[in-house]
Amino acid sequence: MDVDVKEGEQKVKLSWQLMIKKKLITVPSCLGKIRPVVGQCCQQCAPDSLRKKLGQNSFLGFRNLLSFNETQTRYRGWLVRRVCCALFVSGRKVYASPVSNRLERVCQSNRVKEGLTAEQKAPEGQDSRGQLNRFSPFLPLIKTCISPSLLRFVGWVMLKMFSSVFGGIQVNLNHLSVLRKVSQEESMLVYVYVRQSVMDCALIPLVLFGHNLRVPYTVCPLRVYSSPLRSILQKVGVFLLPPTALTEQEAEMDSLYSPVMTSLLRELLHEGQAISVGVSAESGQGGQWLARIRQLIKDGSVPDVSLVPVGISYDCVPKTNIQVGLIAVFQWLWSLFWRRPEGSVRIHFAQPFSLKEMCESGRCRVDEWLPLQDLLLPVILNNRPSVFRQRRMSWLLPSPHYASELEAPTHPERDLGIAIILHLIFSATACSAVMSTSLVSSLLLYKRRKGVNASALCRDVAWLTEELLFRNKDVGFGGSLAEVMQYSLSLLAPHLIIAAVPSRKDPFIVPHPSLAATLHLALQAKIVTHTFVLEAVGACAVSAMLCEVVASGISSSIGSDGVDGEEVRGDVEFDVVLCQSELTEHALHLCHLLPPGFMPPCQSSQSFALDAIDSLVRCGILIMEDIPREVPICDFLKREGTLTWTTSDDPDESDSDCEEPDLHAYKISQPSHCPEMLFFLCSMLAGHLRALCWTTIGLDLIDTPRPETEFVAQIHSHLCDTANKKKQHYGELNLTLSSETHTHSHRQRS
């Protein structure tokens, strides 16, 4: 019976795949041929690094790291084609990693001595044996090295493993040529990526190893229980958590951990080694390693380092929730040899830039950062004017790291460290490619939530691809539209409902209503939201103003729900004029609620708000109109003390506040290429904003203060209960709550 069911499911799957292929066989293969230039460093924070022309003028293409042939070895023949992977690995160059006297140098550093003195573990005259007893948890970390023979063996195993997990690992060769030239200049490189999976830690070293570049020492925040496995990983340059710590937070609680790790980083950088660090976009974990490197530069221990944001894009983020023990790892590796590879990976290395230049240029201002409550309370209490400041995200760099250095938790040095973390999260995400599964997930979740025919979905995919390329965003797919659709739907099939009826030639596709399916689609669509964040903020500002218009009773032709917009979809004309100052102010409020990494810290909030409104004009959603005035009215920015630049070259033109240009206003339009684009953009942030609203309501229902884990669990339970009651918004828990919202709500409620 089970065999018949499986055969039936396989036939249904083949039937809808065949329908899509037949339906779209005439579509030309035009996707993915344009490759935008991505990964350029920030013009404002690192202009000197941007001016360095290190790349090739022509596009070198991509290379699949998992594709081997005899041309990549020094040998030829039938037998070589059978063992070309082993020959390829054996021919890779491995840079030496000396460890002589490293332990002694770390123990004799001033930071470690001060740490020992502070905790009264090392009184004057104590011998080195007593210090080694205190260092026993850190000895394996200090002795971490890179063994050439073991690295080649582990590289061969990882290539075989990834061949069973992924269909390909595509790397931009132009980016690798830049890294090779920077390495020849003997610059110390620090690779920074956004954490998505445990496999992130292995992908970057493997790519660099496969292209004869220096393999970095990798920070991997895992607790490995097996001693043999720990020993193997530490001999290929992997920094694991200390044996006595369960999490990164627990390791940071040790007063000696930070001085030892800072001194260890100093020794590695002096040896010319590269470092690979992952940063969590929600909690900021991993940012403390960047803070240590910046402290070394500030103290003069290290002259400078080159930061390299790395964008890693998955068709499907692999699940690696396994216990890191030797038996469990072998069982997991053995299971990989019997599975079919699914999805591919695209890796982009951004242009390296100087950390010292970014810190000392003073272009990234942090002196005007304020907590969220200080930014929004004047708005909530109708106490105008609005505050033109940046939002402080203190949880990204916990204060215990600075307990021995700073007196106040809001010190500018700490805020500058947080700004660096935010900038790297933004840069790594911005240079990541949009995969086909991300594009389809975004359309199904935010534009076609009630379902769509395959042909209409294909037209949406072609339209959204053009919009992404227009915004200088690279895509991780190519080929004909039929191939792209069949490939992405086959990967997303467990989270979709695909109705393929023999009487209909066009399958109907709808997202699965379960919470797990919605979370998966939302995770895939996050990169698309990041690309359209300006337009999404502007659309939500327009939606907020429409809600105010409806509440005032001025117009009855506009739907009452500005976020969902189900009542106003279609050929509806919005006979409403929106004021530029009000739109900008609403966008300014919304930008303070964005998750970390969606807005560069070097850009002011008012500039971001103005760009958000301008982006809607470029999209065709807003049409600018000039409203003549009889009485001069001060402009919005001029009222707040901000200079307004003029484009007129008339020397007789005055800058007086009494001679203002005509005030701009906007009317809402429906772009011909996508009439429902306003609602599509609003839906991108609707789930996040709705979760914040529900969380604010839930604060009154929870007795505080409580431990953070218990508080987060109760908030999550409240969100799930509220979503079950709302039904139509059940899927909007995609960004249930990031760690900064948990921490901020807990502190404010306390």
CATH class of the domain at 61-116 and 136-361: Alpha Beta
First CA to last CA: what distance? 59 Å
> What is the helix tally?
30
Q: Determine Rg (CA atoms, Å).
A: 28 Å
CA-based shape: globular
Under the CATH scheme, which architecture of the domain at 61-116 and 136-361 would be assigned? 3-Layer(aba) Sandwich
In terms of DSSP E residues, the strand content is 5-15%
Stated plainly, the CATH topology of the domain at 61-116 and 136-361 is called Glycerol-3-phosphate (1)-acyltransferase
Would you count the extended β strands for me? 17
Rounded mean pLDDT is 76
Instruction: List segments where confidence is low: pLDDT < 50 over at least 5 consecutive residues.
Output: 1-12, 24-33, 401-409, 555-572, 631-661, 729-750
Q: What class, by secondary structure content?
A: alpha/beta
Biggest sheet features:
9 strands, mixed
Helix fraction, binned, reads 40-55%
Write structural notes for this entry.
The protein has 750 residues and is of the alpha/beta class. Among the domains are: 61-116 and 136-361, Glycerol-3-phosphate (1)-acyltransferase (3-Layer(aba) Sandwich); 436-513. Helices cover 47% and strands 9% of the residues. It has 30 helices and 17 strands. Strand 13 (496-499) and strand 14 (508-511) form a beta hairpin. One of its GO terms (biological process) is piRNA processing.
